[in-house]
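quick q for whoever's on today - can somebody do inverse folding on this one?? i tried earlier but teh output was garbage lol. tokens:
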């Protein structure tokens, strides 16, 4: 049943086999045995793809609910929601390196039966397709059937290197950014449009620059190197600000913070390992001065 569910989610016996550390023929035989047992065809196989039949779609929903109930019963029998097993965590690469990895020792110490597999990428991670237990995502959420929980806000700051500002001058208004080189993060939902809060109404400016990157770490490196002005989360730029490698500009006109969510596959109950991790990270973020929470930010 688990192999069948993952095959529907991913659309590939080969990927399911890789995920479960087995072989493609093994997964194929498991699903075929399930079909023989039920007496119905669940999947249509071709050389390039898998597609679910009508009977398979109905069985998918019932099997998913059944396995969730089984997992909950198993956890209860083993010790009232005891967190254990492999926890696969997805997150943006820089965020994981700066905010997640340093916090893992304390989490693993609290939960000695849990091990962690980090999937770090600035690309959009879907917990279902990637087989990830929980994804930490920064930014506004699109409509989604995933379970979500807001665990903080990423405060953003406008920064530049001292050498760059000595060369071009320090902008006093958001509109001044339109005349200066900026380093663009290409995964920003708003694209090259940066928005700032003012006393009257938000001001949006369209920025430009000769350097763009799809990695926030690369944007930070380019800004520190004096290639332009950057719009960066405080949790990423904080160390360079404290060291004097970056200067904060337009301080009174901060861009709106971006929400940070923990996302997991849709299910009635979160597995104990997921609940333990999300509770822990939210508590850690609540005490981090570089990350805002509901008490410190009312957007």
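ok took a stab at it. sequence:
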């Amino acid at each position: 049943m688990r192999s069948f569910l993952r095959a529907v989610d991913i659309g590939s016996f080969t990927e399911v086999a890789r995920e479960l550390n087995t072989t493609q023929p093994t997964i194929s035989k498991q699903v075929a045995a399930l079909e023989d047992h039920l007496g119905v065809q669940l999947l249509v196989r071709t050389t390039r793809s898998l597609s679910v039949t009508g009977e398979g779609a109905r069985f998918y929903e019932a099997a998913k609910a059944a396995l969730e109930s089984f997992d909950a019963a198993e956890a209860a029998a083993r010790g009232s929601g005891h967190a254990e097993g492999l926890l696969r965590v997805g997150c943006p690469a820089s965020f994981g390196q700066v905010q997640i990895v340093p916090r893992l020792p304390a989490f693993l110490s609290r939960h000695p039966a849990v091990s962690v597999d980090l999937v770090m990428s600035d690309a959009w991670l879907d917990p279902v397709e990637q087989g990830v237990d929980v994804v930490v995502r920064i930014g506004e959420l699109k409509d989604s059937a995933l379970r979500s929980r807001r665990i903080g806000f990423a405060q953003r700051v406008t920064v530049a290197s001292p050498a760059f500002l000595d060369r071009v001058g320090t902008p006093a208004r958001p509109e001044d950014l339109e005349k200066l080189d900026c380093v663009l993060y290409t995964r920003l939902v708003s694209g090259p449009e940066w928005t700032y809060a003012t006393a009257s109404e938000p001001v949006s400016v369209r920025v430009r620059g000769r350097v763009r990157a799809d990695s926030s770490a690369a944007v930070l490196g380019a800004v520190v190197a004096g290639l332009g002005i950057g719009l960066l989360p405080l949790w990423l730029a904080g160390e360079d600000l404290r060291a004097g490698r970056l200067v904060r500009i337009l301080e009174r006109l901060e861009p709106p913070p971006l929400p940070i969510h923990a996302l997991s596959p849709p299910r009635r109950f979160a597995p104990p390992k997921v609940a333990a991790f999300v509770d822990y990270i939210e508590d850690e973020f609540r005490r981090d001065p570089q990350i805002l929470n509901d008490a410190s930010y009312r957007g």
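fwiw The chain has a mean pLDDT of 88. also The two ends are 44 Å apart (CA to CA). so keep that in mind when u check it
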